[in-house]
Amino acid sequence: MNILLVNHYAGSPALGMEFRPYYLAREWVRAGHRVQIVAADHSHVRAVQPPPGDSVVEGIRYRYYATPAYQGNGLGRVKNIWAFLRRLWADTPRLLAEARPDVVIASSTYPMDIWVARRIARRAGAKLVYEVHDLWPLSPIELSGMSRRHPFIVLCQAAEDAAYRDADVVVSMLPKVHGYMASRGLDLKKLHIVPNGITLDEWAGEPEALRSDAAQALAAARLHTEGGTVVGYAGSMGEPNALDVLLDAAALLREAPFRFVLVGSGHEQARLAARVAAEGLTNVTLLPPIPKAQVRSFLAQVDIAYIGWQRVSLYRFGIAPNKLMDYMMAARPVLHSVEAGNDPVAEAGCGLTVPPQDPAAVAAGLQRLASLPAAERAAMGERGRAFVQAHHTYPVLARRFIEAVS
Predict the structure, then answer these.
(1) Residues 6+ apart with CB under 8 A from 25
(2) Contact 169, 130 (CB under 8 A)
(3) What gap in Å lies between CA 69 and CA 141, rounded to an integer?
(4) What SS3 state is found at 70?
(5) Domain identity same for 169 and 213
(6) Domain identity same for 267 and 148
(7) How many CB atoms lie within 10 A of CB 124?
């Protein structure tokens, strides 16, 4: 098939997140499909911003549209979204002629790309697919406190309802969405669950050497703990990741043999760094994001991997975090601070789950994991790796996606 994937934030290992479009597209290309990805040239989640224009990565055709830079979640991001959608709308005739899509996938986190994708699909006589990363507008309402009457939220709701009404197929990364989507008008016969995952070839052979500053930070952390515990975090530094809770736990463990090394980027990064400095959290090191190929080396040198969430009812629909798949594939015991409709850590038996937004519980959970015999922590890690290999490899997920849209 000819597949046109619309994902505003699409990246690659060289650029940074989002990785899912690349991983799925690579498997589709390997299976003989032709894939064109269209994205914006500026995204808050990428480590490196690509130049606008066309490129080819491992047989995947990318087209990046010029969009204004922005920071945070304010008006600048809204302008960036509209610039991308306008350019995609204007480029429709060229895409129809060049990509000749059989399938058009709208997959940009926010739902407004469904209108442009629908236009392209109808003109091409293609199947229209809506891929759900997060439930917008519920995400900005429940995570950021936006009013349901806010014009942006009203627009998101109209787009989401149009997606459930007009899409031929809806693919969700979140596993517990059936009731909600049905309440918004989706015929559940259209719904397929395809979660996030990993690609096995990136875990084969020797890992890429860790960047010097990260390697030095981990070595220093190991030295200062004197046989204690290094807690690692690798991922976005945004409000949903609840990293303030981890810093609060680090403050509680200031006198204990723990060191915390966090790598990543995001709109909260500068504020978190300022907080570490202001509070004198000498047991915490924050570093810029490392290339995807080095995450494996980073995780190999931490004792416990941390992932946390806010306490919000939104997560009753389930979670599908990329970094958790990396943690589990790296065979690290995981401290998971969450309350959600699903919990891969508990399902796999690969760590410990504690309540969200509870620094004392996070600190106690870290101490409990650290107190376990090394062999028991290693067994936890191996259970996580086996779980991912059985359920979350991209060859399997890409095939499930194609079966859903065929």
Answers:
(1) 3, 5, 35, 37, 60
(2) yes
(3) 24
(4) coil
(5) no
(6) no
(7) 20
Candidates 311, 316, 315; CA nearest to 337 is: 311
The verdict on whether omega for the bond into residue 140 sits within 30 degrees of 0, i.e. cis, is: no
Same domain for 310 and 177: no
Residue with tokens 């504690």: 354
Q: Are residues 175 and 304 in the same domain?
A: no
Distance CA 113, CA 116 (A): 5
Structure tokens given for 54: 């066309």
The pLDDT of residue 35: 98
- Give the phi and the psi of residue 99 in degrees, each rounded to 5: -85, -30
Return the SS3 of 122. Answer: helix
CA separation for the pair 96, 367 (Å, rounded): 57
Domain boundary among 142, 172, 193: 193
- CA distance readout (Å), 228 to 248, 253, 260, 331: 19, 12, 11, 19
Domain's final residue, options 193, 210, 237: 193
Q: Is residue 405 part of a domain?
A: no
Inside any domain, residue 404: no
How far apart are alpha carbons 206 and 238 in whole angstroms? 31
Q: Quick check: bond before 18 cis, omega within 30? A: yes
Does 6 reside within a domain? yes
210 in the same domain as 167: no
Contact predicate 349/334, CB 8 Å: no
Beta strands in 99-198 (DSSP E): 103-106, 127-132, 169-172, 191-193
Number of domains comprising the chain: 2
Residue 249 and residue 227 share a domain: yes
Residue 402 falls inside a structural domain:
no
**Pick from 147, 138, 209, 140: which is nearest to 179 by CA?**
138
pTM for the predicted model, two decimal places = 0.84
Dist CA 3 CA 100 (whole Å): 8
Residue pair 102/79 in contact (Cβ under 8 Å)? The answer is: no
Domain that holds residue 324: 202-391
Please list the rounded mean pLDDT of every run of 10 residues in the chain (406 residues).
Answer: 98 90 97 98 93 97 97 90 98 98 97 98 98 93 90 96 98 97 97 94 92 96 87 93 97 97 94 98 96 94 97 93 94 98 97 98 98 97 96 94 96
Q: What share of the chain is helix, strand, coil (3-state, %, to 5)?
A: 45, 20, 35
